[in-house]
Amino acid sequence: MLHYKTYQLVEPGAPWVVFVHGAGGSSSIWFLQIKEFIRHFNVLLVDLRGHGRSKAVAGSKEDRHYNFEDITRDILEVLDSLKIREAHFIGISLGTILIRNLSELAPERVSSMVMGGAIIRLNVRAKVLVTLGNMFKRVVPYMWLYSFFAWIIMPRERHKKSRLLFVNEAKKVAQKEFMRWFRLTYELTPLLRYFEEKDTGIPTLYLMGEEDHMFLPAVRIIITRHTNSFLQVITNSGHVCNVDQPVEFNHRAIMFLQEISGGMDAVAGIEEAAPACLVAC
Length: 281
Hints:
It comes from Pelodictyon luteolum. This is 2-succinyl-6-hydroxy-2, 4-cyclohexadiene-1-carboxylate synthase. This protein has about 280 residues and is an alpha/beta fold. The protein is built from 14 helices and eight strands. The chain has an eight-stranded mixed β-sheet with strand order 1-3-2-4-5-6-7-8, with helices on both faces.
């Protein structure tokens, strides 16, 4: 089972929030969120396979070559062990893909989704990066590849903190495990195309940095096609907006989750609080 950590510091029966990190990261990337969220919610942090304190999978060939469904079911296994029937989910980067996949496998477990730095579609630049990565992954040290990708996705000086955080976390991932995760890129395009076509109807808030040049344009499109989907753009922030602008990220995410209990009419009311930043379907 995945390594996880829980914070149950609020009254019994409080809703759960599950945080899902991206590839190469770990649950430690949420250190700027924990203090604020545990004031309102029970919190569950997980380390994905081969990341943080979760061990890499060993054994049969089938285990060694896993897919997005395998990784998503790891999260469900933790929920089952803790008897969490339903939760809000917050993800960053590739973690948003896993949350979206979880909403397909077990929609009854997902109260809402907050997608930070959401990956909705691969643009031309992203596809070129993935192709180059697959071409050179066996001849170029994997940390060179990861560092290069991190710089392309988060190129500005104010993204440096986020970039270094993810690179330093990625150093803890074994090279073989990195290769397993990189193989998942072959699944990305068809999976993302399916997600774009399928509307879950689950309340979803996309929190995107205004400088997330790789992925923000696709999110602007998808919220016009999916019901109960909202976008808030955080200024002076790049792809990893929970680290670049944690105060804004926390405030917007918590406000959204609290409004869920008031129905989607109340959620739509958030637009009045931040008219320049929110786009709603």
